[in-house]
Amino acid sequence: MKLTRKMGIVLAASVLLLFTAACGSGGSGSGSGNNTSGGSAEAPANSAAEAKSESAEAPADKKVTLGFAQVGAESGWRTANTTSIQDSAKEAGFDLKFSDAQQKQENQIKAIRTYIQQKVDVIAFSPVVESGWDTVLKEAKDAGIPVILTDRAVDSKDTSLYETFIGSDFVEEGRRAGQWLVDKYKDAAGDVNIVELQGTTGSAPANDRKAGFAEVIKSNPNLKVIASQTGDFTRAKGKEVMQAFLKANKKIDVLYAHNDDMALGAIQAIEAAGLKPGEDIVIISIDGVKDGFTAASEGKINFIVECNPLLGPQLMQAVRDVLDGKEIPKRIVTVEGVFTSEEAKKELPNRKY
Ligand code: GZL
Q1: Do 327 and 285 belong together in one domain?
Q2: 16 located within any domain
Q3: In angstroms, what CA-CA distances link 125 with 57, 66, 109, 183?
Q4: What is the domain range of residue 162?
Q5: CA of 61 to the centre of ligand 1 (A)
């Protein structure tokens, strides 16, 4: 039957009308915890997950594609974190697209934009610094791609830009480090001079570990931070900055390092200066990677606050829940402990990373 042009337009218009009516009755659109809209075609999706769960259901056999933009490979913790994510994605049967940003925000933003163009199902990343993410996260949301934060947080005011943040409480980690010091020096007569190796400038762990530590040690006015500088979470920089601290300060009693790698670099500098780490200079560190535990078991690090890098399983579960349109909490805190030198010696054989 030959369709006249007019008949063709009428037919197309009625198909369009039918289709619009069908979309108008939308799904439940639960998205993440903060989105409870009815999911109607008129109401814009409050979150990418909501938009995702309303879009045409992916065929059951389609492999989930996860785009992960990693910070870099700056420390033992990061290596363990990467391994956990890659192994867990494999176990979950997900197709993982993975990028290493060499600790540069512009590289992470580029990677996220690539994942948007590739139309991955979910984007996850560990923001190298807290600020400067709103634009690219909005692009992901507009593309209907849910984003999950792992390890580090962002300071975006608009929490609909991500589904959840899975990671440690860095302020609490700083508090635990500070509390051990307050307890150790509760009867100190004179000043206790502390030098601090901060993590990457502007990163959530550096900001929060500094804040938590300072909050707790102020209860003992003898505890004084006489120098504080970034070692960028690396051994090389930790050694370099500790050398400078040793040159500039006659009396250093304590080193507070925001991660084991910087502490291990600093130990090299301390020993090169003819001093005994763990004795002449008390050392507190955060992470709890195997090399850190080994140094602690040798008495070179006195107290380790654990920061768990094995976030892979929780991330894959969150990916699955988001794609299933399930409610997930906006914040998933990882569980971790603390270890003195003696406790580290006992725990060392059990360490997986
Ligand atoms: C903490 C993580 C930090 C580690 C460092 O969750 O972001 O980055 O403490 C790592 O070792 O480089």
Answers
A1: no
A2: no
A3: 25, 10, 10, 37
A4: 62-168+310-333
A5: 36
CB of residue 193 inside a 6 A radius of ligand 1: no
Residue 78 Cβ contacting ligand 1 at under 6 Å: yes
Is residue 18, in this structure, part of any structural domain at all?
no
* Pocket flag, ligand 1, residue 164 (CB < 6 Å): no
Indicate if ligand 1 lies below 6 Å from the C-beta of 208.
no
Ligand 1 pocket residue status of 232, Cβ below 6 Å: no
Kindly state whether residues 156 and 187 are assigned to the same domain.
no
**Do 286 and 178 fall into the same domain?**
yes
Strands, E assignment, the chain:
65-70, 95-100, 122-125, 147-150, 164-167, 192-198, 223-230, 254-257, 282-287, 303-306, 331-333, 338-340
Angle, helices 134-142/105-117, rounded to nearest 10 degrees = 10
Question: 145 CA to middle of ligand 1, Å?
Answer: 26
- Residue labelled with tokens 């300071």: 155
| Ligand 1 near 198 CB (within 6 A) | no
Query: How many domains does the chain divide into?
Result: 2
Ligand 1 atom 3: the closest Cα is on which residue?
205
| Number of the ligand 1 atom closest to the C-alpha atom of 76 | 11
Residue at 71 is within a domain: yes
Beta bridge partners of 95: 65
Q: What is the CATH number of the domain that holds 185?
A: 3.40.50.2300
- pLDDT tens sequence for the chain (353 residues): 344 444 544 454 454 444 444 333 333 333 333 333 333 333 334 556 655 544 444 555 789 999 999 999 999 999 999 999 999 999 999 999 999 999 999 999 999 999 999 999 999 999 999 999 999 999 999 999 999 999 999 999 999 999 999 999 999 999 999 999 999 999 988 999 999 999 999 999 999 999 999 999 999 999 999 999 999 999 999 999 999 999 999 999 999 999 999 999 999 999 999 999 999 999 999 999 999 999 999 999 999 999 999 999 999 999 999 999 999 999 999 889 999 999 999 999 998 89
168 Cα nearest atom in ligand 1: 6
Residue 307 Cβ contacting ligand 1 at under 6 Å: yes
35, two tokens? 């989105």
> Looking at the structure, do residues 292 and 324 belong to the same domain, yes or no?
no
- Measured from the Cβ of residue 191, the count of other Cβ atoms closer than 10 Å reads 13
Beta-strand relationship, 303-306 and 338-340:
antiparallel
**Co-location of 157 and 201 in the same domain:** no
Q: Which of 75, 154, 208, 306 to mutate to test the pocket of ligand 1 (most atoms within 8 A of CB)?
A: 75
Note whether residue 116 is domain-resident.
yes
